[in-house]
Every structure is written in C-alpha cells, then in structure tokens.
Design goal:
It contains 2 helices and 8 strands. The protein has 116 residues and is of the alpha/beta class. It has a single domain, classed as 2,3-Dihydroxybiphenyl 1,2-Dioxygenase, domain 1 (Roll). The two termini are 14 Å apart.
Length: 116
C-alpha cells in the first residue's frame, strides 16, 4: 500500500489544491510542525497527499496519482461544477475511469473501483 505521495505547487495554489483534493474525498490534516510553514497535508483513510509549496514546482512529468472514488458519478459532477473537466477514459478492470488535472497541473486518474 502506498502511504503518501508528495505533489509540488506554488504557495498561492495551496487553497485551490486543497479544495480539489477535498472534492476527491480527502480532508486536510496537520503536517508535522517542521513542515507547517511549507505544506498542506490531505488524508483519506491511510493515504495522504502532501502538497508542498516550492518556488519552481514540477508537475508529475509522466506519472499520475490514481484515486478510487467512493461515489464516482457524483464526484465527477462536483468536479465539473467546480470548473474541472474530467476526461472519460477506456474502462479497465470493468471500472469506469477518467483523467483530470489538479490545479497545479498533476494528472489524476479517477476510478470507480480498484483493479482486481
């Protein structure tokens, strides 16, 4: 199991990114005190997304973060309402899926169910 992933962003993108990950079922939690001035942490069950602000962020150049959504259709509708445009993709593992970019430009795969 992957426990966390770190995504780079500019400080001014923090609240927009927090709102994006909140739509995907994550909630904001406190980072360790040593990182409180340069990070926002999001958590869903045992998985965390560490949003680290840096001067010159790099979006994931080839990879992506994959998230299994508790309510796939409602989450995609909420993303569209918030201005994001999930792009439907070919089903894998008999599961609907879509791609969307977070506000910092990272590719996120949205899945209705996990791989079997």
């Amino acid at each position: 199991m992957v426990q966390h992933v770190t995504l780079e962003l500019r400080r001014e993108q923090a609240e927009e990114c927090v709102a994006f990950w909140t739509l995907l079922g994550f909630k904001r939690v406190d980072p360790p005190p040593s990182l409180a001035e340069r990070a926002a942490w999001m958590e869903n069950g045992p998985t965390q997304i560490h949003l680290m602000w840096v001067d010159d962020p790099v979006a994931l150049p080839h990879g992506h973060v994959a998230v299994v959504l508790e309510d796939y259709d409602d989450t995609l509708a909420a993303l569209r309402e918030a201005g994001a445009e999930p792009e439907p993709r070919t089903e894998h593992w008999d599961s609907p899926r879509a791609y969307v970019h977070d506000p910092a430009g990272n590719l996120v795969e949205l899945m209705a169910s996990p791989p079997r």
